[in-house]
Amino acid sequence: MAARLAGGTALAMLGLAGLAGAAAAEPLKVGIIEPMSGPDAATGELYVTAARYGLEEINRAGGFNGEPIEILLYDNGGTAAGTVDKFKQAVADGVRVIFQGSSSAAAGQLTADVRKHNLRNPDSRLLYINDGGAALDLTGDKCHFYHFRFQAPAPMLVGPLVEAMSEAGELGTKVYSINQNYSWGRDMETAIRERAGDGGYEVVEATLHDVAKIQDFAPYVARIKAAEPDTVLTGNWSNDLLLLMKATGEAGLDVRFGTAFLDQPGNIANAGETALGHYLASTYNLAAGDEAFPEDYKARTGHYPVYLEPRVVIAARAFGKALEAVDFGGGAIDVTPIALALEGVTLETAMGPVTIRKEDHQAVMPIVVSRVEKGAPYPVDGTDMGFAPVRTIPGPEAVYPVQESCEMQRPG
Amino acid sequence: MLMEFLVVSVLNGAIYGMLLFMVSAGLTLIFGMMGVLNFAHASFYMLGAYIAYTLSALGHFWLGLLLAPVLVGLLGVLVERFLLRRVHAFGHAHELLLTFGLAFIFEELVKLFYGNFPVDYRMPEALRFTAFTVFGTDYPFYRLFIGGTAIAMFALLYLLLSRTRVGLVVRAAERLPQTAEALGHNVPLVFMGVFGTGAALAGLAGGVAGAFFPTSPNMALELGVIVFVVVVVGGLGSLEGSLLASLMIGLFSSFAVGLDWSLAGALDAVGLGGWAREMGGLMTTTLSSIAGSVPFLLMLVVLLLRPAGLMGERS
Prior knowledge:
The complex is a heterodimer. Chain A is an alpha/beta fold. Helix content of chain A is 41%, strand content 19%. Chain A folds into two domains: 201 residues, Response regulator (Rossmann fold); 162 residues, Rossmann fold (3-Layer(aba) Sandwich), CATH 3.40.50.2300. Chain A is globular. Chain B has a two-stranded antiparallel ribbon. In chain B, a hairpin with a 2-residue loop joins strand 1 and strand 2. In chain B, helix 1 packs antiparallel against helix 8. Chain A: InterPro entries: BCAA_transport (IPR051010), Leu-bd (IPR028081), Leu_Ile_Val-bd (IPR000709), Peripla_BP_I (IPR028082).
């Protein structure tokens, strides 16, 4: 009886040892924190799809540290409070890298949480890949070594937008700026004013309005009309862009729009022909090349990459490239060497090379300006309209100067 | 210039107000006649838009406008008969929670079938024309169509409630349900009818307005809050109050957009403008930048001065 017990224990211990042996290679856990419920779920879904696609690509190439990357999903409901909760849960789950992008408010919360966590837990630091938060202070006041931003903030979009529009002779000399009254909209307004000199235009009027509260934009259109602009520049997204554009079209106002979010799914279908001739500055355009990418994306996710998706894939690919340069030999994972490697990455994309600026960890990405046209390649929303690329501006030309407020503490 | 501002703002504000009335009419009716605060009301509005969209995608815009209120009304009847009636005995909190839950369920159902993004519900080309031109701005006919529908809705409801026998019974059932029952009227049936009608009105509003504003799973959320503001400002349960409140909110919002008034500007009159501008913050916030919050300010003022709302009866 005793012998049998001892034998059993030995067997059990062998089993444990075997388990320990298999678990010796530490899998890298990547958490994706996005809204998957609530009003922002539509955007969150795209972020999740694209980040998963990019991370699974790394796994198909062999994973990292001898194991496939473990992808964990967290639903923050689109709020800063939800983000705090899910961040804690992710840390408890052993997540070492976080992908997040929808909402600058959530990004601001998350980047502060990551910074504090890293100060308090130098042995289990986290890396935050921000693939969407555009607020300037994320690479300014709030910048830190473990935050990387793969998104173009306002000045990086406005510059190329006015440059391409004025080159095409469609900018005019009078610009109306209308934006949402929060950090992003204010950044846009500042950028639009700052570019006035170089762009050779005058800002005839600048309006800020409540975010996602306005149902009827007709009064705003009356204001725009009174100011007689040639072009309306706006960073509005979702309904605030769609309703503004529709109201303008219905009032028969002959202005062109320069936008940052016109490619959000549903916009073109809803606006219809009103959208024709309007401009968009973004970080990717499928028509610019690399046909294999959209086809592969469609084969795996069911649709061509749209809106923010290509950019998120770029972030994941740059991250994957950084992983290639790091080797923990199956041992414990430390994100500091990964972050250092990411700083040195040069990712070739169909738009041009993407690099990271060491001073503030802003991705130096090419910006493409497109125009809504009939018969453009990759038509959107089931219409015959799409985004025809007008001009691509290389990253180093598009990027804004490093903000003085960024004081990055480098490790070591 | 001033004339143009006045005329255009009144036009825009009045029509937006009419739209608000169209959506809130059913809510007022249900509250006034049944005492149920229906949180799912804006969801009925959304469902109406999606039903109309589905039919217009098949090429039947007008049939969509007809069926949206009918189907949503039927859904309302089912909700009343099989859900609300069961919790009625437990009081208002239960009814409120039930409709609150329904709102979530409807939203997720719509997302399930139609996806997260706005759908392509647009008015037919035949309705897409300019009604008239005012100071060089085209005024789309469809806005007038929205206004007309709202006026028709108000007239019908008003006449129905105040001039017909049906209205008499409905009002009796609300005031003194037991007496009405003793007189041989089927009070539960009356309530079912009222709830169905309220839902149908929301459905119609959705069908009409959904073609003008984007039809998306968020449309209930976007209009839900403002509709409650309308009902509270107008006085809970008062149809005329709702109309008045809708118009006020529409006009105030519309005028606020055009006015760059700020506290600093007001202080100029007493020579403190410069000091106020240095302070910045609230002092230099212009009225136009907070136009979306004007309805809530109005609600605050009304609640302070007349807690029962503009036309509400003191209870």
